[in-house]
Specification:
The structure is a single chain. The protein has a 6-stranded mixed beta sheet with strand order 5-4-3-2-1-6. It is α+β, with helices and mostly antiparallel strands. It contains 10 helices and 6 strands, in the order H-H-E-E-H-H-H-E-E-E-E-H-H-H-H-H. The radius of gyration is 21 Å and the shape is globular.
Length: 246
């Protein structure tokens, strides 16, 4: 069973995808998170990459990040006032189009999953909580929506091939969409079901395997709240050393 190589995956964590801040999904406050997807071959494995963005950050265009980049000298001085003004407008236009990085990037294989989360200070941390429990928030999927139908179809196509559950019993059609049809924006309200089922099955296999080895080998998914508790007990160096062992 080939494990996901986190070191190799890290460069794929932020694809710099473009999103229109005027898109209705970003303006509406019905959802807190926007989901994009991709399928890539990384270190010889075909992985589903799930990018989860803050809706508010995507809508605002991450203005704070733009100002920080400008302060680092991205707007270079020009010999003439007119040239400086032109260059400044050009660079500022590029900064305005900059998209925020995903809050979470999930790397999903057929046998495991891991998530790279970005903290407020810009650092990142790996953990193994399931999608439905991300951000210490149960039923996390209810706060998410896909950016496009293609993002949804990509997730369902990848996960449905790996799920062995009976479609008839689950109420899904062969393409993984709800038999009741799509919502008004073309996205299924149960679009994340195939991913949740796959991760639940992986978790169940882990529990059975751990149980067969005995209680001393038992392991469970690490919930994000674990890090909040541990950081109070460990200093910064110990905390990061501990994370590197996950």
């Amino acid at each position: 069973m080939k494990k996901i190589n986190k070191r190799t995956c890290r460069p794929f964590a932020d694809p710099h995808l473009k999103m229109d801040p005027n898109n209705g999904l970003l303006i509406s406050d019905k959802y807190s998170y926007i989901v994009r997807t991709a399928v890539k071959i990384i270190a010889g494995q075909k992985l589903l990459l799930i990018y989860i963005y803050s809706r508010e950050q995507a809508a605002s265009g991450q203005q704070a990040s733009n100002r920080q980049q400008a302060s680092r000298g991205l707007v270079e001085p020009s010999q003439s006032t007119q040239g400086q003004s032109t260059l400044g407008r050009s660079v500022q236009s590029q900064l305005d189009r900059r998209q925020p990085a995903p809050l979470f990037t999930i790397f999903q294989s057929k046998t495991e999953h891991c998530t790279l989360a970005r903290k407020a200070d810009g650092s990142s941390v790996w953990f193994s909580s399931r999608f439905k429990n991300l951000n210490s928030d149960y039923f996390f999927e209810d706060k998410c929506t896909f950016y496009t139908v293609k993002d949804q179809e990509r997730m369902e196509a990848y996960c449905s091939r790996l799920n062995s559950y009976k479609l008839a019993a689950s109420g899904l059609s062969s393409n993984g969409l709800s038999s009741n049809g799509l919502s008004s924006n073309g996205l299924s309200p149960n679009g994340f079901r195939s991913l949740i089922r796959l991760q639940d099955r992986i978790g169940e296999r882990r529990r059975r395997k751990s149980k067969s080895k005995g209680p001393e080998h038992h392991t469970a998914d690490v919930h994000p709240s674990f890090f909040a508790k541990r950081v109070k007990q460990l200093d910064t160096a110990q905390y990061h050393d501990g994370l590197s062992l996950l």
